[in-house]
Structures are given as C-alpha cells and as structure tokens.
Amino acid sequence: xxxxxxIAVAATMFTVAGCSNDSTDESEPTNTEQDAETxxxxxxxxxxxxxxTHPLTGMKSEYxxxxxxxxxxxxxxxxxxxxxxxxxxxxMYEVLAEGEMTRFVAIFHSTLPExxxxxxxxxxxxxxxxxGYDAAFVxxxxxxxxxQQLRAGRTDYLSGLQxxxxxxxxxxxxxxxxxxxxxxxxxxxxxxxEGYEWEAEVTPLTFYTNDDIQVVxxxxxxxxxxYLNRNEVTYSYDETTGMYHRFNGExxxxxxxxxxxxxxxxxxIVETGHRVVDDAGRREINLTEGGRxxxxxxxxxNEVMWKNIDGKILPVDENENEMPLxxxxxxxxxxxxxxxxxxxxxxN
Length: 348
Description:
By secondary structure, this protein is α+β, with helices and mostly antiparallel strands.
C-alpha cells in the first residue's frame, strides 16, 4: 500500500473512533484526532526525509533504482483483460493500433513487477515513444515497418518471436495472441544475454513537491474518452487517495494476479494526427509536431499544449515551458485530431 493511502486509511479509522464517543466535547480535538494528525505529519516528514526520488514518478524512496527503464508492449484486447503488472508502471502511453482498439506502452523503472503481460506486437510509433526514455523494449511481434527499425538497431529489444517458450511463456488460461507473458527476471536475463546495458542514469521528469500542487482549473471528477466512438475509457477520481481509477467500459483496470486497482496521479490527453496507411488498418501517428492537450490532476482539468521534448510527450504552457506533474503514475492517452478532443473527450 502506498504511503498516501496509509495516511488516508489511518485518518479515517481514528476519525470514526472519535465520533463514536458521544460524551466528547466537539469544540476540542480528541486524543485520537490528535494522534491521527500526528501520524499524518510524521508520515509526511518521513517521506520528505527519504534519501532518493524516483525520476519518472517523483516519489520518494529508500532506494535508488539504477536499472534502465524497460518498456513493454501490452495487449488491451478484451480477451487480454485484466492485464498483469500495469499497476507498477511509472509512465503509460495508450494509443490506437488497428481499428478502434488501443494498446499500451508501459514504462517501468522505479518498480519492476514479477511478471508482465499479455505482451503484444509493436508499430513504428511505439518505438518512438520507447526511445524517448532510452528504454529497453519488450514486444511480441511487429508490423513490417517496426520489424525493419528494430532489426536495424534503432532500439534495444527483446522479441517474443525469438524467445517464445523460453524467456516468454504462454498462459494456459487464455488463447493466443492474448497469452504471452514475461517475468522481469527473464527480461533482465535477456537484456544481458543480448549484450545490452542494464544500468543507466535516467533524466527526471518535472514534478510538483507535495505541498505546492496546483488545483486551479475545471472540475474533472470523471473523464470519458471515446476512441472513434466505440472503445470507451473512463477515469474516476478518488478524493480519498487523490488518484484516478481507470475503466474500460464498466470493467475496472486492476492487476490480474492481485486485483489491485490501477491508480494514476496524472492524466494527460493529447491530440495528434493519425493516418491509416495500409489495408490492415495500420496507422502513422504524428508524435513530433505538438498540439492541444488536456492535463488532469487532483480532480482538476486544464487545457494545455503538448510538445515532444527529447522524445517524450510532455505538457507545456503557452510559453512552451514544461509543466510539472503530480508525483505518481502518469497515464498519457493519445487521441486522433480528427474527430479531436472536443468530440472524443468529456469531463465534468
């Protein structure tokens, strides 16, 4: 359980205990209320005193993650849900593949889950997103263009086409192509086997500190994205944790193994040019020109711009200054500029 959830649960327990005593003078804090306040203050102080900050989440930590980021191509077909390991990602991209179905590029750095999947095939624009974090790329299959780029050495990668049945394992409770999984033990083994670097210094993103997060903007307790009016994604704000929960339709995004719900600190919706380029419905997606964006944090939405900064899709203000993120997972939804955010995104 993350530290801000511990604070919220502790505060709730002590408040309920205090309210159950009818003889207490409400004008003065009870001992239990004082204890809850003390616990919260101590938890915040302890978090502030932790020696390291994870560069892609802004979260304080007792340890320094010295590994390079690892990006995994994750299947989002209904037959692949719920997925395994997504709750441990630092940054997540959600982008259309063929038709109206999206796929995820999950970037892991601060926490490496025991297992992740189902792993699916890559497109050229996925490689662009991976290279923004200098991540090792884990994929199971590719489009012709992505195969050409990967075989040419554009990024370090592990392919399930090469290691199916060895580094990658098939789950017996799902059918192919929705059942390919890999452990992080095997990811590290494969990276070392291929002669790629495992350790790296990671350029940090820009984050608010816990006491200066801005909450000025339009209320956004529920956010709905319709990908081509067929694939609906919903985010619901939890005031207790300060995080957003994600849903595909009515199905909440949780971890397949633990049932832990995914919690996003930042929702960043960006509008980009999409173009279908072949009979299979594959797309070219413009990830370089920048454009309109919607940055949503702490139940508040703000219209911003997005910019490709060293390969990363990041929010910027009207002066093209990078805007800070709230510590935690950042989920980036890339939507087509036609029909655009005005038609495909709603929030209250």
